[in-house]
Amino acid sequence: MVIAHHIAQLNIARARAPLDDPLLADFMAQLDSVNALAEASPGFVWRLKSDSGNATDIRAYDDPLMIVNMSVWESIDALFDFAYRTSHTKVMNRRKEWFESLPGPHMVLWWIAAGTVPTVAEAKRRLDHLAAYGATATAFTFKVRFPPPENFVGAAPRGRPIEGRPHGVAPTE
């Protein structure tokens, strides 16, 4: 039995100031529209969000200035198209205005079984793996990509089941 795959991504950033500071006002003002663009993009499956509708108040790190963005897509190409071929690029191009440079990688990709979503803890482990070992099939980047595993048979897929049927994606049986 072969299980279809999706690509998971984690992106972290350390804000130059608290999110309610005027320095971050432009970033925060665009957040809802960028998230809506992602959700409407071809290949989008899921994104991490709290009751606020975004993930800026999810504390994945002890540092209150660290924010996370995590999502799942049907393919690397779908994620790449959203990230680099939509108006999202204009926001990304201003990243240095709002966020500090980090000493290690700030983004990681990895394959998951379709119908599951990764946990924040797993995503952080993948980013740590990328920092320690470079790009591998376990954790990689857009620049150094790995194909999906042939299947997940015999190994428990990472992540947790998707609840409900977001965007028409049925959980795997």
Please provide a written account of the structure.
The structure is a single chain. The protein has 173 residues and is α+β, with helices and mostly antiparallel strands. The protein has a single domain (5-168), classed as Alpha-Beta Plaits. It is built from five helices and seven strands. The protein has helices at 25-40, 76-84, 88-92, 95-98, 120-133, and strands at 5-15, 44-47, 66-73, 99-100, 107-113, 116-117, 160-161. The strands form two sheets. Strands 1, 2, 3, 4 and 5 form a five-stranded antiparallel sheet that branches. Strands 6-7 form a two-stranded antiparallel sheet. It is globular and about 50 Å long. The N and C termini lie close together (11 Å). Mean pLDDT is 87; it is low at 152-173.
Question: What's the helix count?
Answer: 5
Give the structural class: alpha+beta
What's the level 1 CATH class?
A: Alpha Beta
Distance between the termini: 11 Å
Order of helices and strands: EHEEHHHEEEHE
- The backbone outline, from C-alpha atoms, is globular
Beta strand %: 15-25%
Short description:
The chain has 173 residues and is of the alpha+beta class.
Walk me through the topology.
Layout: E1 5-15, H1 25-40, E2 44-47, E3 66-73, H2 76-84, H3 88-92, H4 95-98, E4 99-100, E5 107-113, E6 116-117, H5 120-133, E7 160-161
Antiparallel strand pairs: 1-3, 1-4, 1-5, 2-3, 6-7
Notable traits:
two-stranded antiparallel sheet; five-stranded antiparallel β-sheet; Alpha-Beta Plaits; 173 residues; alpha+beta; disordered C terminus
